[in-house]
């Protein structure tokens, strides 16, 4: 059994329900198109990754790019993002995985090479984090469950990364950082997506 697992958190692609901050300035139709581009990018950089992959959907599993046997599918469970991520990690470790990373589907700049780096760094460190330009993170990895990393956070704010790093330090864990990337949440972040894809 492959002991490495990549968790991929996605929202179900429903018009008007995805990329709501982006939709506030460019409209729901365009925001939906951008989300489809981001989902495709997430698929492209993960499909060949030599680890087990599980896609966690926000509301229901759906037929899309993430097809078996390359991906398993589950539904997120929990009240907020922290609780949902914690439950996914807990399930992963209960299933016997030893190195587990989680990503979302918001980062066009993410590459297969950076994901490989994450698992390599996790072999030598307790925690690995991919810092996002907005003060959050686009990737979190660990080798055992650390609940403090998922509680007491103001999710989707610039305090998430510093608060998480403080938790890691307080736990006495070693941490490795990946390159800083940009999550596509607002109109200014669209510059990270090639223009020809946005037309």
Automatic annotation (TrEMBL):
Protein name: Glycosyltransferase
Alphabetical list of Gene3D superfamilies matching this protein: Spore Coat Polysaccharide Biosynthesis Protein SpsA, Chain A (3.90.550.10)
């Amino acid at each position: 059994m492959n002991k490495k697992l990549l968790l991929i958190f996605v929202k179900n692609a429903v018009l008007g329900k995805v990329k709501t901050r982006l939709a506030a300035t460019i409209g729901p139709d365009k925001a939906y198109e951008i989300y489809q581009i981001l989902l495709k990018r997430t698929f492209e950089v993960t499909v060949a990754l030599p680890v087990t992959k599980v896609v966690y959907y926000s509301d229901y599993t759906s037929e899309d790019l993430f097809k078996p046997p390359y991906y398993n599918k589950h539904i997120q469970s929990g009240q907020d993002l922290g609780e949902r991520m914690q439950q996914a990690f807990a399930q992963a470790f209960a299933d016997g995985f030893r190195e587990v990373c989680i990503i979302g589907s918001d980062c066009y700049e993410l590459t297969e090479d950076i994901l490989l780096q994450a698992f390599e760094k996790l072999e030598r460190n307790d925690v690995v984090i991919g810092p996002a330009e907005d003060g959050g993170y686009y990737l979190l990895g660990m080798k055992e469950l650390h609940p403090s990393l998922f509680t007491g956070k103001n999710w989707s704010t610039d305090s998430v990364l510093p608060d998480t790093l403080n938790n890691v330090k307080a736990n006495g864990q070693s941490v490795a950082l990946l390159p800083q990337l940009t999550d596509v949440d607002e109109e200014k972040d669209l510059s990270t997506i090639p223009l020809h894809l946005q037309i």
